[in-house]
Amino acid sequence: MLRDLYKxxxxxxxxxxxxxxxxxxxxxxHGVGALPVVHDDRLVGIFTERDLVNRVVTPRLDPELTTxxxxxxxxPKVITFEQTLCDALRLMQTHSFRxxxxxxxxxxxxxxSLRDIPVEYHLLKERWDEAQRGHDLRKKKSSDQPxxxxxxxxxxxQAPH
Length: 161
Prior knowledge:
By secondary structure, the protein is an alpha+beta fold. The protein has helices at about 1-5, 20-30, 50-55, 70, 85-95, 115-130, 135-155; strands at about 35-40, 40-50, 75, 80, 100-105, 105-115.
C-alpha cells in the first residue's frame, strides 16, 4: 500500500493565488516536477512542469503576474493511501499522467511521479524480501514471482523525462 511509502514524507504544496514564478522556485528548490495546489487544506489542483511549459512559457505569459490557479490542472485525479503502486501506475498510464497526488481522506500526503515507481517498487521488494527471510526459499520464490512478473510488465525500462 502507498501508506507505507508516504507515511513520513514532507509534502510541498502551493496556494492557488501564488504566482507561477513562486511555484517554479519552490519546485526547483525541492527538486520536484509537480506541486499539489491546496486551498483551505483541500486539494484544488496540481501544477506540473508540463503546465509551466504548455500554459505559461509557450503562450508567453508573465510568470510573475500569472497565478497558479490560472494555469493549473484543476480537480486532478488522485490515488488514496490504501491503494497500491500498481493502482497508481495503471491510473497514470490510463490518463497519461506523469504525476499523481496521493491522499489520505482529504489531506494530500504526497505526489507520486512516474519516475518514482521503479524506485518505490524496489523499496517494496526489499521490504518483502526482508519479511520473507526465515521462510522456505522455495515458498518465497513461488509466491514472489507472479507479483514481480505482473509489476515488471508495467514498469518502464527507462523513466521518461
